[in-house]
Amino acid sequence: xxxxxxxxxxxxxxxxSGLAWSNVDGARxxxxxxxxxxRKDIVAEKTVLASNPALLEQRVNAILExxxxxxxxxxxxxxxxxxxxxxxxxxxxxxxxxxxxxxxYGASLLELDANRINVLxxxxxxxxxxxxxxxxxxxxxxGMLNISFYMEQSKxxxxxxxxVVINNINFGLTFRKQFAVMMEQNRxxxxxxxxxxxxxxxxxx
Length: 205
Known about the structure:
This is ABC transporter substrate-binding protein. Keywords: Signal. Residues 1-22 form the signal peptide. The chain is α+β, with helices and mostly antiparallel strands. It has 7 helices and 5 strands. Strands 1-2-3-4-5 form a 5-stranded antiparallel sheet.
């Protein structure tokens, strides 16, 4: 191989690496945007939102709807059962998952200390399409939450949340296992499993 060709390959490799790193920086920027919105629109107004669950749910939804594809998230949670489900069951599962999660976990955001939320610099990344962005959340009552946001670019080149790991608990994997248990307990009746799934999520509040 000629030196000229080798030089071109070297330059191309360096450019590709630079572009890839610039690309993953966009994932961190997307997370920073979400965190800033949480801080400004939710945590800073916790006094008002604590007595208005409907408004809190509305605020959380407004923040997440631009970075979370609940249809795709629900598909991953359903796992192998997704193909068995009808179109109506898929829609119902996605709706139940979104509504219940917003109601159940939205209130926990009010426990955060608005002045102690830190988006960490990007660390080493894996070989897949996801980019991990770590954020440290200090709770007002004490204790720290480390949340890893796994971001993935959509076909429209928009960074979307693919998975969340909280204090080393992989929520995507945990939810998928839980729904599989619901299916087994309900003898593979998808409608019954979805109802059980809704009740299970609601109990976590």
